[in-house]
């Protein structure tokens, strides 16, 4: 059969499940489609023409290259297609977003056919996705006196590609749809168990919320054809968790508008709202698509006549409704007054949603166009030898006299690009910054590769110190979906210049190490800025931002990111940890004590947590930084002592060397370069030339939180509180309870030690606890399954050398095999210990899952509904989060232990200790 016939067969299968033909990215298929278009008598000519025009992916896809060349042939008269005139061919090229289309347009604009050159120039003036090779051609032509090149450059210098766009409407009508009450996890919008389909946008769109919700949205659109549907998190925050880009893509697919009639299933301009605003990473992704995110503040804490907060019987603040956003409410966003209205009634100021920069994103259809537009304007003005006119909103630059700098302010100032020379910038300033380290993960990586193709990028920016493509989210099961997607992804990223977990040629053993752990190791400078495609991109060195797949693509392509400098909250510690406590308990207590200190207000949300971590090495400190994603912080920074930082860098060097020894370095010797940078940084610290990063004594913080270690008496558990009468209180990570709350009675169906929140010492604790229980009872018997997944292979290798892995094997009923990886996900568990392959495992929820309705005790970060465990009839699934010793003992007992049982089980075990550093 021909490739086309195979494609038509697949199309028929898709039609049976309500899907359109899959967008074409193959050069071979596009070539066959074109051959059928050229044959006037071909039976499939009409369908081939439709597919060529409306269903071929743009950018740098192989299909785009073939399409652009054929359009060039039509324009030059070398091919004739009656349905595609020269003018129409130019229109199609104008929607192809860079890459081969730019090459063709430059060929035509700089050619000898005057009329064609003018038409090509007119189209080029609207394009912004140009790279060095493209701008070099323009510059060379201009230097050689080419008038068309000069005309194009003059247009670029004026930024006519932006100024000629239609203005943003003064009034935007919306109709509300409450997607859920309480925090809305992106798992509701893009479930982790459907991660395999994220690059197939139409198919993935079928999983958003529920089919019933999708129909309700369609009904609202039919009732209010002149309004956009605004998706709302009532009494909660919109978009917490991971899967931002696929979540926003789905929201846009159902509620936004098509970006181009010639690009299938790429929608833009979604509008979302939340009572407590939008999660920072999710909001950045909304900006990527030219959408609007609104902090509705439609519920507030009730106060009595004395001004005190009114509380219910549980001690929680009582909320009262300020205004209604019930489903079907018609509201108006006024972009001029920057207010939200219900009819004539003004509801709230929304100026933070409509800043000058955000208005530019809305006008341009997304933030990428602005980023590239600014670069092309700067290039054109420099080439012409003129000063670029002020077209774009000037970056806000805030400099507060009399105040020093927080740690994040220092990093942003150090990495700033294009800001006023010599000006010190404080929180709130808009900054372009150099990105040092970039991470892409495997369930969003295919989307990142699509974004790179769409923005016509072919090679990693040379200014990026290092970038890594992981394989951890699909590590558990090497099923047909993973086999189809992962090799394709690894080849693309390897060719692009990224260090990959799996070599496309099979010359080194695949690594499924958790992405955050690898990024934590390859970050070798605490002054670094890291961008990663996962919400838990939270390094204990440098400042790391979890990002959507598109922002990751932008960082890979340009080596830059743009964002305001966030405010910081300073976290310090006092007192002494109890011997029986683990550092994970300190992490949970931090959230609990913070909420109590600030009357339930989460001062971490949207800000940097500057944690003065003191004696903890990078691996252990990562336990804190990782959890800050669940605290809804934008990022976190660890303030380390000199000797601690040096030790962490030495560990990082050794692990990078292992990657080199496995053959993972590339022709640019990126990994060796990181070791060299680590050595340089260690030398700076030891010599005193540049000590470990510290904030200034007079830095200004949004808030300061002091955590009292003395009052942490018992292990702490983050409880999803699935049966809370107030649904907005469920699955929030804010319900932190001590062990005694459960009375030693709550049944546990499965324990999970694994994912990114554990390190080597946690696996040693498992081994030591097994020894302790064996000593007490003569034999370890599990009354619930215990799944153990080390985050990296390095840890397993070290445990083997130190004798711990052998003891884990003694009590395991299953041990992973890289030679024979699982091809299907486990659906049933026995009461044994499972030693699983390094990777995300249950935490991701896209492959392995607990049985429906189970109560899971886990060391991971996920207690979102349906992620680790789904509901069943009559019982909600719940994932409680705790320290490693609590999880292990819960699996052994089949229930949550009481405090006496816990203390006996951890006696003599060296739990992760922590001594606060002295703070000035």
TrEMBL record:
Catalytic activity, EC: 4.2.1.3, 4.2.1.99
A Gene Ontology molecular function term of the record: aconitate hydratase activity
Aconitase B HEAT-like domain mapped to chain residues: 6-162
Domain Aconitase/3-isopropylmalate dehydratase large subunit alpha/beta/alpha: 409-894
Domain Aconitase B swivel positions: 176-404
Enzyme class: lyase
Entries under InterPro entries matching the protein: Acnase/IPM_dHydase_lsu_aba_1/3, Acoase/IPM_deHydtase_lsu_aba, Aconitase/3IPM_dehydase_swvl, Aconitase/IPM_isomerase, Aconitase_4Fe-4S_dom, Aconitase_B_HEAT-like_dom, Aconitase_B_HEAT-like_dom_sf, Aconitase_B_swivel
Source superkingdom: Bacteria
Swiss-Prot/TrEMBL keywords: Iron, Iron-sulfur, Lyase, Metal-binding
Full protein name: Bifunctional aconitate hydratase 2/2-methylisocitrate dehydratase
């Amino acid at each position: 059969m021909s490739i086309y016939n195979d494609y038509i067969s697949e199309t028929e299968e898709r039609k049976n499940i309500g899907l359109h033909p899959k967008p074409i990215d193959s050069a071979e298929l596009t070539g066959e489609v074109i051959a059928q278009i050229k044959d006037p008598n071909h039976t499939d000519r009409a369908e081939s023409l439709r597919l060529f025009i409306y269903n071929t992916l743009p950018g740098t896809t192989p299909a785009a290259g073939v399409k652009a060349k054929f359009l060039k042939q039509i324009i030059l008269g070398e091919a004739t297609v009656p349905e595609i005139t020269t003018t129409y061919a130019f229109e199609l090229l104008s929607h192809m977003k860079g890459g081969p289309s730019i090459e063709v347009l430059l060929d035509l604009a700089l050619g000898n056919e005057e009329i064609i050159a003018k038409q090509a120039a007119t189209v080029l003036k609207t394009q912004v996705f140009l790279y060095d090779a493209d701008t070099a051609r323009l510059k060379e032509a201009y230097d050689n006196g080419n008038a068309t090149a000069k005309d194009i450059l003059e247009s670029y210098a004026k930024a006519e590609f932006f100024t000629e766009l239609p203005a943003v409407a003064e009034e935007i009508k919306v109709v509300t749809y409450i997607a859920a009450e309480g925090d809305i996890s992106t798992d509701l919008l893009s479930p982790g168990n459907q991660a395999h389909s994220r690059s197939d946008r139409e198919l993935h769109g079928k999983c958003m919320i529920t089919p019933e919700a999708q129909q309700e949205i369609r009904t609202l659109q039919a009732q209010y054809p002149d309004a956009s549907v605004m998706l709302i998190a009532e009494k909660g925050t919109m978009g917490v968790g991971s899967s931002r880009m696929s979540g926003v893509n789905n929201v846009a697919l159902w509620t936004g508008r098509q970006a181009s009639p010639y690009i299938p299933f790429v929608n833009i301009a979604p509008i979302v709202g939340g009572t407590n605003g939008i999660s920072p990473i999710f909001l950045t992704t909304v900006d990527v698509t030219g959408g609007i995110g609104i902090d509705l503040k439609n519920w507030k804490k009730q106060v009595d006549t004395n001004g005190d907060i009114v509380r219910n019987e549980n001690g929680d603040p009582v909320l009262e409704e300020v205004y209604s956003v019930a489903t079907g409410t018609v509201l108006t966003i006024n972009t001029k007054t920057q207010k939200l209205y219900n009819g004539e009634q003004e509801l709230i100021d929304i100026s933070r949603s409509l800043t000058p920069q955000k208005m530019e994103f809305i006008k341009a259809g997304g933030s990428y166009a602005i980023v590239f537009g600014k670069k092309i304007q700067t290039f054109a003005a420099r080439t012409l030898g003129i000063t670029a006119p002020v077209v774009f909103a000037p970056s806000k630059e805030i400099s507060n006299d009399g105040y020093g700098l927080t740690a994040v302010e220092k990093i942003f100032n150090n990495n700033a690009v294009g800001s006023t020379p010599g000006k010190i910038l404080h929180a709130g300033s808009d900054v372009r910054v150099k990105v040092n380290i970039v991470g892409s993960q495997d369930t969003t990586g295919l989307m990142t590769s699509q974004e790179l193709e769409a923005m016509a990028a072919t090679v990693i920016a040379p200014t990026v110190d290092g970038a890594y493509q992981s394989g951890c989210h699909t590590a558990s099961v090497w099923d047909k979906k993973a086999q189809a997607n992962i090799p394709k992804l690894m080849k693309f990223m390897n060719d692009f210049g990224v260090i990959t977990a799996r070599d496309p040629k099979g010359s080194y053993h695949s690594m499924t190490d958790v992405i955050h752990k690898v990024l934590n190791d390859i970050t070798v400078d605490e002054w670094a800025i890291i961008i990663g495609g996962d919400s838990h991109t939270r390094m204990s060195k440098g400042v790391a931002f979890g990002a959507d797949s598109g922002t990751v693509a932008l960082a890979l392509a340009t080596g830059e990111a743009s964002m305001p400098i966030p405010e910081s909250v300073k976290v310090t510690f006092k007192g002494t940890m109890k011997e029986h406590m683990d550092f994970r308990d300190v992490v949970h207590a931090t959230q609990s004590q913070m909420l109590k200190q600030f009357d339930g207000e989460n001062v971490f949300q949207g800000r940097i947590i500057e944690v003065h971590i003191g004696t903890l090495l990078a691996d252990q400190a990562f336990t804190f930084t990782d959890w800050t994603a669940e605290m809804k912080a934008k990022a976190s920074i660890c303030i380390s002592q000199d000797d601690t930082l040096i030790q962490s860098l030495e560990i990082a060097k050794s692990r990078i060397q292992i990657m080199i020894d496995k053959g993972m370095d590339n022709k640019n010797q990126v990994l060796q370069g990181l070791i060299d940078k680590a050595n340089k940084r260690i030398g700076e610290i030891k010599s005193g030339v540049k000590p470990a990063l510290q904030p200034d004594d007079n830095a200004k913080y949004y808030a300061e939180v002091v955590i009292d270690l003395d009052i942490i008496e018992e292990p702490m558990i983050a409880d999803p509180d699935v049966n809370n009468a107030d649904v907005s209180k469920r699955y929030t990570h804010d319900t932190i309870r001590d062990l005694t709350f459960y009375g030693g009675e709550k049944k546990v169906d499965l324990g999970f030690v694994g994912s990114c929140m554990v390190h080597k010492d946690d696996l040693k604790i498992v081994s030591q606890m097994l020894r302790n229980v064996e000593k007490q009872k003569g034999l370890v018997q599990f009354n619930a399954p215990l799944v153990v997944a080390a985050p990296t292979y390095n840890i397993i290798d070290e445990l083997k050398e130190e004798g711990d892995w052998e003891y884990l094997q003694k009590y395991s009923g299953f041990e992973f095999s890289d030679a024979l990886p699982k091809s299907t996900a486990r659906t049933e568990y026995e009461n044994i210990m499972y030693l699983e392959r390094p990777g995300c495992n249950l935490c991701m929820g896209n492959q392995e899952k607990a049985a429906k309705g189970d109560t899971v005790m886990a060391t991971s970060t996920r207690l979102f509904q349906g992620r680790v465990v789904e509901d069943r009839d009559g019982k909600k699934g719940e994932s409680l989060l705790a320290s490693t010793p609590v999880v292990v003992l819960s699996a052994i007992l089949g229930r949550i232990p009481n405090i006496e049982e816990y203390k006996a089980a951890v006696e003599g075990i060296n739990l992760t200790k922590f001594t606060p550093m002295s703070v000035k």
